[in-house]
């Protein structure tokens, strides 16, 4: 029974506190999310700017601007236009595999630095682009940057944060993504008024977050886990004392060393991932990012301006609506930061799923009633448009405190050290692959599925919520190096975890009837 709880006795509670040093470190590292967020916001806004479309995608411009009778659902259906947006995510997929090696052998910091430099180069090329080929080369470099950053930043945050605050600090990454989206939407709103120059400023502006992560990575300390992994135990001990704010770190240090010794026995972490005992980890590394993309969030955030224009808003009103959803995104992520270590991961996943499902059904009905299957409609009444925006905002809020941050947090905290870099690469690769697929086919799907597209994603929200309820244990308040106890106690995954894989010093296990949904609760 999935809701059975487990009580563990003798579990370790590492001493330590949230020091100003570690807080500042995590804030700087989390800014790595700015590049990903800025790009998500900018690409959607730029592709709705008439000057940009006229220069690079004239067929889309003519179809959208000159033929007012065309089907509203199919206005923006262009393979080349979507390739501009989605090429980044294919590049990020490839980069995340390379980043796995860099992150493991050279440290998390260097991976962040590479991400910042590559993203900066891509932004520069895009700002001075003369043709579609230059645009796509720039996007590919941006993708390499995103791949490196998304691979290393969540790992860095999970390793650096004290386990009691790991959820809140790790969600700083998602908060940065949301802030990046919001800043991009605001810039799009103002730059859209600058003819010919506006889209160049929007694309070139990506250099700013790229410089922030590049400089940040140079001043950040390495994580103790990474230092031990690279054979620097003395430096790791000193660093651990500093980040925990106390001298009594012997227990945690010994467990980190033990985890590192285990990881050194693994010649090929990629092949190791296929072992039976890592079945739960591999399942989550694939399922969580897969489901995260199929929430339908990219329908809103990539193409928010396009979507709002499609349901009857004018150019600037469309970008302003995107700014509104971006603001909701940021505020709702703050809710997640507050609640993730208080209410737990599962509660947020499940509540967010119910809220998203209801909103998608309502939006599908409203768009379906107005546009039907023909896609042709007169201008929307103001109240009608406001209702659509309202439900889209409620939907965005649900994603921003559930699948948005937890899609990065949960995978980064469940992997043992010996497979951590490889498994995180699988996580990022799956995320980027399905981001690519959704970005590439969304406008075509909108043209063919019409308002049913929202029902398509609503169906997947139901599937993913059922999956979380039955198969994802609660990981709140469990030290990373002791996470195997959570899997061992799970009603389904327990059979995959051998007893000798339990943490050194071990737990005495007692199955109990509780309501903590598989969390290993410590009694002291």
UniProtKB/TrEMBL annotation:
Subcellular location: Membrane
Gene3D superfamilies membership: MFS general substrate transporter like domains
UniProt GO molecular function: monosaccharide transmembrane transporter activity; symporter activity
Membrane topology category: Multi-pass membrane protein
Keyword Membrane: yes
Pfam families reported for this sequence: Sugar_tr (PF00083)
Protein name: Sugar carrier protein C
Organism for this UniProt entry: Spinacia oleracea (Spinach)
Gene: LOC110785662
């Amino acid at each position: 029974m999935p809701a059975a709880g487990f009580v563990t006795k003798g579990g370790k509670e590492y001493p330590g506190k949230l020091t100003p040093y570690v807080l500042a470190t995590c804030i700087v590292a989390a800014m790595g999310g700015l590049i990903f967020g800025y790009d998500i916001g900018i690409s959607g806004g730029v592709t709705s700017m008439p000057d940009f479309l006229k220069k690079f995608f004239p067929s889309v411009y003519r179809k959208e601007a000159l033929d007012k009778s065309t089907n509203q659902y199919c206005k923006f259906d262009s393979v080349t236009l979507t390739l501009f947006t989605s090429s980044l995510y294919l590049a990020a997929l490839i980069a995340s595999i390379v980043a796995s090696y860099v992150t493991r052998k050279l440290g998390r910091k260097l991976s962040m630095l590479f991400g910042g430099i590559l993203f900066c180069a891509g932004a520069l090329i895009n700002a001075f682009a003369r043709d579609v080929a230059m645009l796509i080369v720039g996007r590919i470099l941006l993708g390499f940057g995103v791949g490196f950053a998304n691979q290393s930043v969540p790992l860095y945050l999970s390793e650096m944060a004290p386990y009691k605050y790991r959820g809140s600090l790790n969600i700083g990454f998602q908060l940065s993504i949301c802030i990046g989206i919001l800043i991009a939407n605001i810039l799009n709103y103002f730059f859209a008024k600058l003819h010919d120059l506006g889209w160049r400023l929007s694309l070139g502006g990506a250099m700013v977050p790229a410089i922030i992560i590049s400089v940040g990575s140079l001043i950040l300390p390495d994580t103790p886990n990474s230092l031990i992994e690279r054979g620097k135990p003395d430096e790791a001990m000193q660093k651990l004392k500093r980040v925990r704010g106390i001298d009594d770190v012997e227990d945690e240090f010994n467990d980190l060393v033990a985890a590192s010794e285990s990881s050194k026995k693994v010649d090929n972490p990629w092949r190791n991932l296929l072992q039976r005992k890592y079945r739960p980890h591999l399942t989550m590394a694939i399922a969580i990012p897969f489901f995260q993309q199929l929430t339908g969030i990219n329908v809103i955030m990539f193409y928010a301006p396009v979507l709002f224009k499609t349901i009857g808003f004018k150019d600037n009103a469309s970008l302003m609506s995107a700014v509104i959803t971006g603001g909701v995104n940021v505020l709702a992520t703050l809710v997640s930061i507050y609640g993730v270590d208080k209410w737990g991961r599962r509660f947020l996943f499940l509540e967010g799923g119910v809220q998203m499902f209801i909103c998608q059904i309502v939006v599908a009905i409203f768009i379906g009633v107005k546009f039907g299957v023909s896609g042709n409609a007169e201008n929307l009444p103001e109240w009608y448009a406001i209702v659509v925006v309202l439900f889209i905002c409620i939907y965005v809020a649900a994603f921003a405190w559930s699948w948005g941050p937890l899609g990065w947090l949960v995978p980064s905290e469940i992997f043992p050290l010996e497979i951590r870099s490889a498994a995180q690469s699988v996580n990022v690769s799956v995320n980027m692959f399905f981001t690519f697929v959704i970005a590439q086919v969304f406008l075509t799907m909108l043209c063919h599925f019409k308002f049913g597209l929202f029902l398509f994603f609503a169906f997947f929200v139901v599937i993913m919520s059922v999956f979380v309820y039955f198969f994802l244990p609660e990981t709140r308040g469990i030290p990373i190096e002791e996470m195997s106890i959570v899997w061992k106690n799970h009603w389904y995954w327990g059979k995959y975890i051998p007893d000798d894989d339990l943490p050194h010093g071990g737990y005495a296990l007692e199955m109990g009837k509780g309501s903590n949904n598989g969390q290993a609760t410590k009694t002291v």
